[in-house]
Amino acid sequence: MLKLQPGVTLYLARHGQTKANTENRFSGKRDTPLTETGFAQARAIGEILKREVGMRPPLTFIASPLARACTTMQIVLPVLGLSENAYTIDPRLQEVDLGDWDQLTDEEARARDPVFFEARIKDKWHLPVPGGENYEQVAARASAWAQSLTGDTFAVSHGALTRILRGLLSGHEPAKIAGERGRDEPQGVVFRIRDGQVARLDP
């Protein structure tokens, strides 16, 4: 089971809704802009944090370098009375690299190679998308990032990465983490990980 350093609390959120999310497209390292709903979700994340830790909280703020995560963070920070630039980026928080499937729909990806599409859906932990990563590779970099934290942190990342990281911190087996297809990682909420416990914080 993956554990944070003793005494560290992690607040973790997915970026706000994007245009690709509304079109049910695979979205890896290629970016599409936040929707109006996505902007509202980012503000809601800020309000959740303000309720949980107060204004100008003594947290370290870290985002994936992808634009949709940075935009979300830049909306959150002013809600807390902080500069929109008061954060750093870490490439280990990037979404799973979806290679040749990035920005395709399920139907478009399946049409390219139906046999491989079904095989990959059944074993995302080991099978990477052509030109991309598998979940095991994402888990390795996400784990290294989480274990490097030395103080309370708020991070903005992505759907697959946050699902993988929460699964690891909850002690779930790889098959369970990778087998959650069809359950989209929620947006507009914050997950708090403290003392080995994962709690969902809603608006």
Estimate nothing, just give the exact number of structural domains.
Answer: 1
CATH superfamily: Phosphoglycerate mutase-like
Could you name the ranges where pLDDT drops below 50 across 5 or more consecutive residues?
A: none
Rg for CA atoms: 16 Å
**How many beta strands in the DSSP annotation?**
6
The third-level CATH topology is Rossmann fold
Give the amount of beta strand, in percent: 5-15%
Strand order of the largest sheet: 3-2-4-1-5-6
**CATH class value:** Alpha Beta
Based on the structure, what is the oligomeric state of the protein chains? single chain
Separate helix tally: 8
Explain what this protein looks like in three dimensions:
By secondary structure, the protein is of the alpha/beta class. It has a single domain (10-201), classed as Rossmann fold (3-Layer(aba) Sandwich), CATH 3.40.50. The protein has eight helices and six strands; from the N terminus they run βααβαβαααβααββ. It has helices at 19-22, 36-53, 67-79, 106-112, 114-122, 135-148, 159-169, 174-178; strands spanning 10-14, 60-63, 88-89, 153-157, 190-194, 197-201. Helix 6 packs across helix 7 (159-169). The two termini are 29 Å apart.
